[in-house]
Amino acid sequence: MMKSLQHLAVLNIIFLVTSGSASNFTGLPIVLWHGMGDTCCFPFSLGGFKIFLERDLNVYIKSIKIGNSIVTDYKSGYLIHPNEQVKEVCQQLNNDPALTYGYNAIGFSQGGQFLRALAQRCATPKMNNLITLGGQHQGIFGLPDCPSLSKKSCEKFRQLLNHAAYVHWVQESLVQATYWHNPLNEQAYKEASTFLADINNERTINQTYIKNLQQLNKFVMVKFTKDRIVQPIESQWFGFYKTGQDKETETLQESELFLKNRLGLLEMHKRNKLIFLECEGDHLQFSKAWFKANIYPHL
Hints:
six-stranded parallel β-sheet, 13 helices
C-alpha cells in the first residue's frame, strides 16, 4: 500500500513543518475533508497540511476521519457511501465544542462535494465559507487516474463505472459510482444516483438544501486548469457536458440547474456569494504561495 501511495495525486505540496499546535487558537476554526486515496492524517499530505495551517493561522483545525482507524478512513474514499459519511461527520462536528460558533470548510477533490452535502444537510454547527479544491459538483464521466491505486485496480474501477455505475449494489458499494454522471443517459443518472442527484436536487426540489446552502457567506470553487483526474474539468466550477453528448461542455451559468435556480445558486450568484478561482496545474497541485494569496482571504 505504501508503494502505491507514492503516486498520490492529492496535495502535491511539500510542507516542512514540525508537530505541535498552539495552545490558544484565534480566528474561526477550519474543517478539512480529504479526497480519495488520502486520509485525515498522513504526514506527507493532509496531516502535514493541517499542522501547517494551525501554525500559520493559529486556528483550530479538524481534519475529518471516517471510522475509528486510518485504515477505515482510507477505505472510506472508495467503499463507504457518502450518505453514511456525511451523517457521521455531522455528528462529529456537533460533538466538537471547538466548532460551536461555526467554522470554515475546505474540501479536497471529492471531499468538496461531501462538504457541500454537509452544508445542505447539516445546518449546525454553522459553516461560514465553503472552499472546494478540485471538487466534482456535477460529477464525473471518466476516471483516467485513481490516486493511490495500481493501474490494474484503477482499470477495474473504470470498467465497473462505465458498465454498471447505476446498478444498485454498485451504487451502494463504490463511492465514485454515487457521483458518476452519464450525460448520454441523464434519466438513468437522475433515477439511480444515490448521492449526487439528490444533493443537486435532480429528482425533487429539497427546499431545506436550498435554504441551508444559502446560509454560506461564500462558496469558493477552485478549478485546476491541467487536471488529469476530473472529467470534465468544468465540474469543478459546477459545469458539465451538455446533455446527450460528452464533447461540448456548458458552464454553471448556462445550465438548467442554475437558470431554474433548482439549488439556489442563481440567488447566491446575485448576492456575490459564488467565487470561481483557477489554479494552473494538475489535480490538487498548488503551491503554498498560491494558497496563501488565494485561499487565506476566505479563512
